[in-house]
Amino acid sequence: MASSPASPRVVVPTKALPAPRFRYSPVVVAHPFAFVSGLVGLDPATGALATGGAYGQTVQILANFTALLQEQGWSLSQLVVARLFCTSPDGAASMNQAWEELFKDEVPPARTSVIVAGLPLGAEVEIEFQLVLTQGA
Amino acid sequence: MASSPASPRVVVPTKALPAPRFRYSPVVVAHPFAFVSGLVGLDPATGALATGGAYGQTVQILANFTALLQEQGWSLSQLVVARLFCTSPDGAASMNQAWEELFKDEVPPARTSVIVAGLPLGAEVEIEFQLVLTQGA
Amino acid sequence: MASSPASPRVVVPTKALPAPRFRYSPVVVAHPFAFVSGLVGLDPATGALATGGAYGQTVQILANFTALLQEQGWSLSQLVVARLFCTSPDGAASMNQAWEELFKDEVPPARTSVIVAGLPLGAEVEIEFQLVLTQGA
């Protein structure tokens, strides 16, 4: 099930993110980019959604993402774009609050944010990330 | 209407996918990536949505995508990320079932999945794909 | 707050787009791609959503995007993929009308279009763009 050595796609093993509940790879690298699957706010310790509604779930997503960065030796300054999905306008305000705390002293990435009708596992927030790993040729 | 030879963007002609009903290019390559437009489950033989609800439509989308891979000489192992849109939680379960059948013996890509309020042509499922074609420099 | 010189990510200053209302960078380049944040139809002159519903907002988004292209020396032929979000089926028809006018004589990009439950600032349409800037190695 591992990527072929000849493949330009590398599935990155990670212990920083909760185990997938569906059939996907949490992190895939295709140079010069790393693609992180849309994350919901699962607490790796319990496997359940974090408490605290959209705010708490966003804090958890960003904590999981930050743990991934530390594990892989990546940094927030390599984040090029994030896509944020939330299930209500009120939730979006809470999501934005948690987001702004993370990027208080960091240059933020490009971003697309929409309100959707629902998310996997009954989550209120889902965020997808794309990083650049090296200078493109 | 063809891409300029000097353009780093190449619009890929394909007979594997149904003709666009809207103004977009089904497949665009910008090295090292190929971008496949969000596909709904149109049967190329009839031009209509496949029967069988979200499950049947997902099977059709994945069949069309697989036909594209064969036509272009690409493989599932080059798929880096997919974005799945579905119009109901029940539909998402059916969509996941068809998805899991395709990736039963294949390493899956990164993935983002959300439930939306609606899709073009009254579809229940839409999936967007991004592949990596060559090793990035 | 500027990108580190060593960073492969470059945040592009622009006067063509309305100032962000949330914490994100409107345009980020990671070679060979430029990522443009999801834009809603804000009139740069007033800072308010353009009039004319989904059609008027889409015209405004595409005018802002076109101004960005001119400012940066980029062209529509470098647009590889766009993601369109709209809040109603009727709005989607209007959005498509404005879209088709822009691409009347231009090869369109890959595209994903979905109907969502809501958008920031009460917008009816949001569009995200990705361009390729140079031939990938």
Please tell me about this protein's structure:
The structure is a homotrimer. Chain A is built from two helices and six strands; from the N terminus they run βββαβαββ. Chain A is α+β, with helices and mostly antiparallel strands. Chain A has a single domain, classed as RutC-like (60s Ribosomal Protein L30, Chain: A, 2-Layer Sandwich). Chain A has a six-stranded mixed sheet with strand order 1-2-3-6-4-5, covered by helices on one side. Chain A is globular and about 40 Å long. The N terminus of chain A is likely disordered. Chains in contact: A-B, A-C, B-C. The interface between B and C is medium-sized, with 33 and 35 residues.
The N- to C-terminal Cα distance of chain A equals 30 Å
Low-pLDDT sequence parts of chain A: 1-5
Structural class of chain A: alpha+beta
Into which percent range does the helicity of residues of chain A fall? 10-25%
CATH-scheme architecture of chain A = 2-Layer Sandwich
- Largest sheet: spatial strand order of chain A: 1-2-3-6-4-5
CATH class of chain A: Alpha Beta
Number of domains of chain A: 1
